[in-house]
C-alpha cells in the first residue's frame, strides 16, 4: 500500500512552497499526496468575512490552487484534497499520525520561533508523533546555490536511530551525499568522571573520542544504505552553530526531537530551535524516544 505525504495549507506562498516540496517527495517515495486545510465556520464582525459561503469558497480555493500547481509539475501523482472541519492544531496532529510525513510552510528567517513558525506550526511540531518538514519560500539570493547534501545532526548517538534512518533514506532517495554533523565541547568538571577520562584516553583525546562516537552511530546505517556517500563532520562548538555551519550545500536538514511526554510538550531542543530559525533549506524534525 503506498504511503501518504500530507501538506497543511493556509493560502500563503510558504504553504504553496510546502506543497511543491511535498509533491516532489511523494513522487520520490511512490506515495500519495494529501492536501488539507482546516476550517470551521465562525461568524465574524466584518461583513464579508461573516459570510459562511465566502469563507467556504476561499478554503476550497486554497486547496484548488495548490492542486493545480502540483498537477502542472507532477501530472501523474495521485492527489487528494480535503477541508478538515476541525480546529487547526488538533486536525494537523491527527493528520501527522495518519501520514508518513507532514509538511508545513514556514515563514523563514526570524528572531523568535513563535514568529518563525506561527503558533499553529509550533504547537504541531511539539506534539506530532511522526516527522514534520518545515518549508519556506526560497529567497532570491539563494537561487543557483548548489544543494547536493542531506545534513543530519547527531548529538545523542544512543537515541539517533530514527533521525539517522530518516536522513539516510532521504539521501538515498535523492541520490545525494549525507553529511553527519556532531558538535562537542569540553565537558564540565562535575560530569567528567573516571570512565569518561578512560574512554578519551583510549581514543587518543576528546576530539578523537567524539569522532568515534559519531562513526559508531552512523555505522549501522552506512551498512543498510551502502549506496549513500557519507561525510562525517565533527567540530567543537555549540550544537546549533556547528549544525548550521555545515548546511552550506544542504537541500534538507534533519534534526531530532524527543517524543512528547506528559510534561515536556514545550521542548524542541536547542539544535532544532537553531535550525528552524536560520537553516537555508527545508528542515525535517524527527521525533525519537
Automatic annotation (TrEMBL):
InterPro entries noted in UniProt: Rossmann-like_a/b/a_fold, Universal_stress_UspA, UspA
Entries under Pfam families matching the protein: Usp
Top-level taxon: Bacteria
Domain UspA per the UniProt entry, residue ranges: 4-136, 149-287
Family to which this protein belongs: Belongs to the universal stress protein A family.
Record protein name field: Universal stress protein
Amino acid at each position: 500500500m503506498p504511503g501518504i505525504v500530507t501538506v497543511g495549507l493556509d493560502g500563503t506562498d510558504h504553504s504553496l512552497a510546502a506543497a511543491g516540496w511535498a509533491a516532489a517527495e511523494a513522487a520520490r517515495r511512490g506515495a500519495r499526496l494529501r492536501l488539507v486545510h482546516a476550517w470551521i465556520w465562525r461568524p465574524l464582525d466584518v461583513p464579508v468575512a461573516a459570510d459562511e459561503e465566502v469563507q467556504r469558497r476561499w478554503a476550497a480555493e486554497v486547496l484548488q490552487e495548490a492542486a493545480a500547481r502540483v498537477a502542472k509539475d507532477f501530472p501523474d501523482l495521485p492527489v487528494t484534497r480535503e477541508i478538515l472541519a476541525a480546529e487547526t492544531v488538533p486536525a494537523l496532529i491527527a493528520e501527522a499520525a495518519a501520514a508518513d510525513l507532514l509538511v508545513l510552510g514556514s515563514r523563514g528567517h526570524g528572531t523568535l520561533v513563535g514568529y518563525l513558525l506561527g503558533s499553529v506550526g509550533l504547537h504541531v511540531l511539539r506534539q506530532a508523533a511522526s516527522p514534520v518538514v518545515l518549508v519556506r519560500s526560497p529567497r532570491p539570493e539563494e537561487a543557483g546555490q548548489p544543494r547536493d547534501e542531506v545534513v543530519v545532526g547527531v548529538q545523542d548517538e544512543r537515541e539517533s536511530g530514527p533521525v539517522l534512518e530518516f536522513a539516510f533514506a532521504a539521501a538515498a532517495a535523492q541520490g545525494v551525499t549525507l553529511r553527519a554533523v556532531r558538535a562537542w565541547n569540553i565537558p564540565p568538571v562535575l560530569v567528567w568522571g573516571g570512565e569518561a577520562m578512560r574512554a578519551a584516553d583510549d581514543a587518543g583525546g576528546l576530539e578523537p573520542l567524539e569522532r568515534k562516537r559519531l562513526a559508531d552511530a552512523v555505522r549501522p546505517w552506512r551498512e543498510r544504505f551502502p549506496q549513500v556517500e557519507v561525510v562525517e563532520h565533527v567540530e567543537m562548538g555549540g550544537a546549533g552553530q556547528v549544525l548550521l555551519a555545515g548546511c552550506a550545500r544542504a537541500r534538507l536538514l534533519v534534526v531530532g526531537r524527543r517524543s512528547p511526554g506528559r510534561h515536556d510538550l514545550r521542548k524542541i531542543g536547542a539544535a532544532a530551535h537553531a535550525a528552524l530559525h536560520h537553516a537555508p533549506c527545508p528542515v525535517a524534525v524527527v521525533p525519537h524516544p
